[in-house]
Amino acid sequence: MFFCVSSHNVLKISSGIDEFGAPQWDLSLTLLLAWIIVYLCIFKGVKSTGKVVYFTATFPYIVLIALLIRGVTLDGAVDGIVYFLRPKWHLLGTAEVWLNAAAQNFNSIGIAFGGCIALSSYNKFNNNVFKDTLMIACINSATSLLAGFAIFSVMGYMAFLQGTTVEEVATQGPGLAFVVYPQAIATMPVSPLWAILFFIMLLLLGIDSQFCTVEVIVTTLYDHFHPLIRKYLKRKEVLVLLVCCVSYLLGLPNIAQGGMYFFQLIDFYAAAISLMVIAFFEVVAISWIYGANRLARNIEEMTGNKPWLYFIVCWYGLSPILIGGIMIFGFIQYTPVRYGDYYYPGWGQAIGWVIASLSIICLPIGAIHAMLKEKGGFVERFMASLKSKIPDRGSLTFEPEEFGSYRKEDPTLPPSYNDISRHKGFPSAPPLSPVQESAL
Question: Are 294 and 392 a contacting pair, CB within 8 Å?
Answer without folding.
Answer: yes
